[in-house]
Amino acid sequence: MTKSKPLTAPERRTNDVFDEESIAVRSRWRNLAAFWILGLCNNYGYVVMLSAAHDILESKFGTTDPGMHPTNGTITTTNHTGIRSCNTLSTGAILLADILPSLAVKIITPFLPFHVHARLATCVLFSAAGFLVVSLSTTEWLAILGVVITSLSSGLGEVTLLSYSHKYPKQVIATWSSGTGGAGIIGALSYASLTTWLSNEDTLLLMLIVPIIQGITFWLVLVHPPQSSIPVTKNGIDSQEQIIEIPRKSFKEKINLVPGLLKYMIPLGLVYLFEYFINQGLYELIQFDGIWLTHAEQYRWLQVDYQIGVFISRSSVNLVTINKIWIMAVLQFINVVILLFETLFYYLPNIWIVFTFVLWEGLLGGGAYVNTFYRMSTEIPRADRKISLGIATMADSIGIAMAGWLSMPVHNAICGLPQPKRVGS
Q1: CA 128, CA 65: separation in Å to the nearest integer?
Q2: CA 54, CA 95: separation in Å to the nearest integer?
Q3: Considering the domain boundaries, does residue 245 fall inside one?
Q4: Where does the record say this protein resides (predicted)?
Q5: 77, part of any domain
Q6: 288-301 residue pLDDT tens
Q7: Which of the chain's termini has less CB crowding within 10 Å, N or C?
Q8: 368: CATH
Q9: CB atoms within 10 A of CB 340
């Protein structure tokens, strides 16, 4: 039996480098996958909770009045004069309950100490509590409280994980954004599918698996870097290298960063203002009679169409990078004008044209989100990046909240108008 030849010093160094790079590659893929799953889990409850809360309110508390009928988990008012069919104003309260707590968290959290493990534990517990409270609620205020708790979890998770991403290669921004886009499709389809076999309450209890997956992914799948390390690149492979830890910023220093972030936040906020004005105020007012889809089905598939657009664009930043976010805001405003006039005059002759504009709307919204944070991860100095990413997360929520307030009176005003005759019909 021959003995193996001892390795020379250069050979040992070569093997050590190879092993280090191999470990770095495996860690890189684990982190990319982990951020995708975390993005999915973080936004899953937000996507599901609005329609689920409507279902719970209707089934448990009898909010359907004479002249109203439920459609796919929403409450609609049928105009008995045959004019229009519109959502009741009361649904706007739940809509804002799903937005405003998240906005409050995003405004406050970036200026608080960054204890990532404590924050993620809070996210997991709040997400689970939201599903439990809405499912087991016995009063209306408890059901709405469940929506608020879920919103707090989503907002805290977004501001925390985007800030934490500064410790990883910038590609995790892309996988995080793709995961949040996937939450729209997977959340909507899973809720709709499960409720065909299970009650609304049992469906929400089954979805407790989502916060469990979130916790497993963060603590067991994600590779956490040492406290005093940042990612650097050697020969194209990401690895960790010890550096001197950057001193924490004071509250005043954090506030002073805000003016420089407005060039990212204002275009993103405008895109989301226009986008959610369409989603909340206009979708339901678009109606094509005498086609293969009922009015309720048209609304449902417009939502799916929008989520497909968001998912595609949030997953595209590694292929297409857009620096001028303000162009997307202008294009999204054009969408508002086109679809607003459609609700007023019914001038689009075919529903496929509406589907095209809605898909385009989703592409613009998702593209604005992922490109904004991707640009920030490359343009902002590392010393300011963590807090800057956290502060910028409030831009989309501010836009959504403004859209919520604006869309309700516009929606109700259009509901009071006579339904026009479709052009070409």
Answers
A1: 32
A2: 10
A3: no
A4: Endomembrane system; Lysosome membrane
A5: no
A6: 988 888 877 787 78
A7: N
A8: 1.20.1250.20
A9: 17
pTM comes to: 0.75
**Alpha carbon separation from 94 to 25, 49, 50, 145, 278 (Å, rounded):** 44, 10, 7, 10, 17
More confident residue, 219 or 56: 219
**Residue with token string 């598939």:** 301
In a domain, 364, yes or no: yes
Per-residue pLDDT tens over the stretch 168-196: 988 899 899 999 999 988 988 888 788 88
Using an 8 Å Cβ cutoff, are 48 and 209 in contact? no
Half-sphere exposure in the Cβ direction for 185 (13 Å, CA): 15
Query: Which residues, in sequence order, are CB contacts of 152 under 8 Å at separation 6+?
Result: 101, 102, 105, 126
* 230 phi, psi to nearest 5 deg: -135, 160
Q: Is the dihedral of CA 147, 150, 156, 158 positive or negative?
A: negative
Beta strands in 178-316 (DSSP E): 229-234, 237-242
CA angle 191, 311, 327 (to 5 degrees): 135
